[in-house]
Amino acid sequence: MTADDATGIIRKANPGAKPSRKNDPEGTRQDILEVATEEFASLGFSGGRVDAIAARTRTTKRMIYYYFGGKEELYLAVLEKVYGDIRAIENRLNLQDLEPETAIRALIDFTFDYQEQHEDFIRLVSIENIHRAEHMKKSKAIANLNITVIDTLARILERGRLAGVFKADIQPIDLHMMISAFCFFRVSNRHTFNLIFHQNLAADDTRSRHKRMIADAIVSLLKTEAVGG
Amino acid sequence: MTADDATGIIRKANPGAKPSRKNDPEGTRQDILEVATEEFASLGFSGGRVDAIAARTRTTKRMIYYYFGGKEELYLAVLEKVYGDIRAIENRLNLQDLEPETAIRALIDFTFDYQEQHEDFIRLVSIENIHRAEHMKKSKAIANLNITVIDTLARILERGRLAGVFKADIQPIDLHMMISAFCFFRVSNRHTFNLIFHQNLAADDTRSRHKRMIADAIVSLLKTEAVGG
DNA sequence: GAGGTTTTTATCCCGTTCGTCCATTACCTC
DNA sequence: GAGGTAATGGACGAACGGGATAAAAACCTC
After folding, report:
1. Same structural domain for residues A158 and A187?
2. Does a structural domain hold residue A192?
3. Quick check: pTM over 0.85?
4. Domain that residue B114 falls in
5. How many domains does chain A have?
6. How high is the pLDDT of residue B22?
7. I want to staple A46 with a disulfide (CB 3.0 to 4.6 A). Which of A136, B17, B46, B119 is the partner?
8. Does A154 touch chain B (CB under 8 A)?
């Protein structure tokens, strides 16, 4: 195996000579981060291998330590990236122009689709919970993330109550938890669930049925007067 | 450290002599299984250490291999035990004498409490999903488990529909998924959720509020006529 | 183009960890 | 109590895996 094969990239054509090196700090960093995301999401923190990550990048293991410091810091960087992504998108949601019920349904729709399409995110969150969020606790970036969903929900609920469509007294965070729980579980637990109940939670018809069911459950909860007790 | 200290158990008093050994195959097996449950639930399959398990049993690592064959088989035995436990309890539930709504609320109540009280189970299920249920797939014991919850739910739904209290057309498995999702998420994701939203999902008042909310959501879903679409 | 800094490559190191080997002790049967 | 089987203990091995070291190549600045 020649050096050419090992690196896989030669940017200048310099026949007969050693392949020249091209520095690309940001590219290298991103490359590592992307591969690490896959590795950790797929195998967990303990299961993920630094050597395996290095092997799939176009660079070497040394660069991981150079840019990130170590396995844990790399994992944390991955975590910060995926959390940053979802918050950024959430913050761009604009639901204030919609009718309360429509707004809630739109938010559920978004959450449902996002979670379904970002299995890596779901897996990383699950993994982090297995670790009792011990890594996340060290992250200032995640602690400082601007969470607007709760405010968004609070305003929708308030408008709904004023309009008389929402009668139940539900706290925004609780509502968010309920929506997340539904959407998250379908993805996070699909493997054991499918196996035990002979289902296919990834199937199209199941998906649309579930989406409707979840939205109906939330909406009917909000519309129903508390039973009291 | 003497041999006495190392084993921790001397069943016969034979002063001045080596402590005698007592064979206890079933006890040894159970001992290992219990410690392994804690270890794997706490640290995951990759994170769990065979040596650590052995150290906390009253026996040695050799016995793990003698009785279970290896790390993976031990982990599978743990999985089979906890799944067997919950199914056994579920199968003993008797909800057919209750009014449909009361029965549903009782089932939710049970599920909620069981999940909350069996964090090890929740964690092991999460862990197994991280592994895409690859270990569980190898288990005949789990595949052959008798799942009665779905039948129970089906009968409650049917009775509710006949009585005119339940109007929505919901499939038993979907309903079970929804209930599980709620109850599971609160426990499985509590660490990241608490951190991000500055909550305490383990607090008493949160717990009872959530239990009521979940039950209300399910019940109002079932009682509400489908919106159609 | 010289000097210093940043980025990169190649190789080595040592603690950890799963699993095994072999000898020994308890137990059961006749 | 003799002989065979089941259960147990303790130490050892070999591979793995995270991380470190040293040196070279590219890049930037003046």
Report:
1. yes
2. yes
3. yes
4. 79-229
5. 2
6. 72
7. B46
8. no
